[in-house]
# Entry
Amino acid sequence: MTLLQDLIAEQTALVPVVDRVAPDALGYGTDLSCVLDVTPDLDTVDPMSTVAIGEAIVRRFITPRGGVVDDQSYGLDLRGHCNRGVTNEALTRLQSQCRVEALKDDRISDAEVLIRWVAVARQLSVRINATAVDSAEEFRLTFFVTADGLLLQESIGAHG
# Structure
């Protein structure tokens, strides 16, 4: 071995090997509670809680693809679908795309998405049943998306 290879081997021998990364080591510190904007009091949430995960899912669904500079694959922009004609086939594709987008969050182990088009109101009704990775806790989130904004219908949290 060369001097450089010996040095690398010596330094890597000092690094402990772990089977699983602890949740708090994933880079989730304290998170601000935020869907469209932070709260007036700058409330914080546990980033591993279903509230924080639910808020993160909603942000993914209302952010245009490419809207996050350092992650061009982030986002789906459901608001953009509200001004288009929505067929049943398009809704099926959109549900699948939403599920894939939700599963990009490493705090979610499974997600089921149901989307309905409410023609009179020109809005999408979105219901998500998801399972958090570490707690295996299931939670439900229901919200409406219009071209102008978002309305949470059901609070984020565990369900039975």
Summary: The chain has one domain: 26-158.
